[in-house]
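Because discrete structure vocabularies remain unfamiliar, it helps to consider an illustrative case, giving the amino acid sequence and backbone structure tokens:
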Amino acid sequence: MAKVLCVLYDDPIDGYPTSYARDDLPVIDHYPGGQTTPTPEAVDFTPGQLLGSVSGELGLRAYLEAAGHTLVVTSDKDGEGSVFDRELVDADIVISQPFWPAYLTPERIAAAKNLKLAVTAGIGSDHVDLDSTISHGVTVAEVTYCNSISVAEHVVMMTLSLVRNYLPSHQVVLDGGWNIADCVARSYDLEGMHVGTVAAGRIGLAVLRRLAPFDVKLHYTDRHRLPEELERELGLTWHESAEDMVPHCDVVTINAPLHPETEGLFGDKLLAQMKRGAYLINTARAKIVDRDAVDRALRSGQLAGYAGDVWFPQPAPEDHPWRTMPHHGMTPHISGSSLSAQARYAAGTREILEAFFAGRPIRDEYLIVDGGALAGTGAHSYSVNK
């Protein structure tokens, strides 16, 4: 029998919900391109429930305990003597979310002598040291595509919020004012702007598709160029690198995984190559940008706005400069954790566990590391240090 250690974010401040704003979710059984949504043998939750917090337990307890496994759920993941560190020593499986990542460092992986499987309930396994999992024979899996559209919708929302100056205008209402001139002095139309994405995978392509009806000029850069017919359909202009693309764009959205080639990509040098007054949206990973360079670019006016929901570390400390820099639209890491997405990533986590316990292959698109090497989606998206 296995010990499963699951790290989830805390419950709502006023307690775990007893009711919800909506009674149901739309039924979605496949993603764009045809990949099916998660197909576990069963689930022990109602779609639309809060599953990603501690009391939600990803809907896994009944399933795991009925099979004789042990489930430990905690939000305490950082600092000396954390519950995560104490329980990790003899854990067979670790489940974590990108929104509240349990950082599986080389030291933690070395200390976890029984660890066989690390599951990301969501997308993005950069909080797991992939080199160490390869050398220790640990399988890494994530629920690919489960919240890609959720994140893409968040990107579109943030783009419009920044360009139209929505958040400060809403604050005027909350403050009891009617300061129209103050609101519109930084408000523009998105129509006709040039918008580019760094990476055009599942999320980046979904962003491009959703922005096309706004009559914008679309650009992208990606290590894998899209098919020519798709470029024609969406009117895409491809660039060999981010350096080539950003001078042309009024809005740049980052939708790339974090790996050695993207870490620190948007520093002072690249930000200076962007149009003055451009907007930068980052729902990918915080370390793709230089924290302080973004702050400087906003204060100097080189950037007109920055929005995203990824920080480093997570949760971000109270004195993180992104909380107080001007013209930002930051949220905590929520873009991929809507209640709709939670139903999919909880079901996908169970699907992965079912396959693992039964000795069946885990879906290739879910795999990041397997058999001592990058595998599946991991081989497509990540780089390993040598």
Remarks:
- Residues 339-358 form the longest helix (20 residues).
- The CA atoms of residues 58 and 346 lie 5 Å apart.
- The first strand starts at residue 3 and ends at 7.
